[in-house]
Design goal:
Radius of gyration: 14 Å
Order of helices and strands: HEEEEHEEHHE
Number of helices: 4
Shape: globular
Number of strands: 7
Largest sheet: 7 strands, mixed
């Protein structure tokens, strides 16, 4: 079982990774813009009401919709999606169902999807929080 603490530790281990101070969102800067690679899922619990963060589910960026379909088909207990993400390359991950190893692989791949090529190929590991 993975936790939000595991998400934070792993996500911030990647070069250039940052965490938003106000929300549970991890991103990397590319050409001056934040590119999110993992974030808390905002769930709609009541129709016509604002979405609220679900602390047990993480949205993670994937390379493309083909990869998304493969991951979703691999294990329905761990991975799912909802209408809001139709056509968007991201999956929803139940933290209680994935191992820390699963999480590390997913987060690293998500980071690689968003990181600038120069940063993605850098050997060092550093991270900081967004001011």
């Amino acid at each position: 079982m993975a936790t939000r603490a595991d998400v934070r530790r792993i996500a911030l281990s990647f070069p250039g990774a940052q965490e938003d101070e106000e929300r549970f969102v991890f991103f990397v800067m590319d050409k001056g813009k934040p590119k999110g690679f993992a974030w808390a899922w905002l769930e709609r619990t009541e129709a016509k009401k604002a979405r609220t963060p679900n602390k047990d589910v993480l949205a993670i960026r994937v390379a493309n919709n083909a990869q998304k379909d493969l991951i979703l088909a691999s294990d329905k207990r761990k991975f799912f999606t909802e209408g809001h993400y139709n056509g968007y390359p991201a999956i929803l991950v139940r933290l209680s169902e994935v191992t820390v190893t699963d999480l590390r692989v997913l987060l690293e791949e998500a980071w690689r999807c968003r990181a600038p090529k120069k940063l993605a190929s850098s050997p060092g590991r550093s991270a900081r929080r967004r001011p």
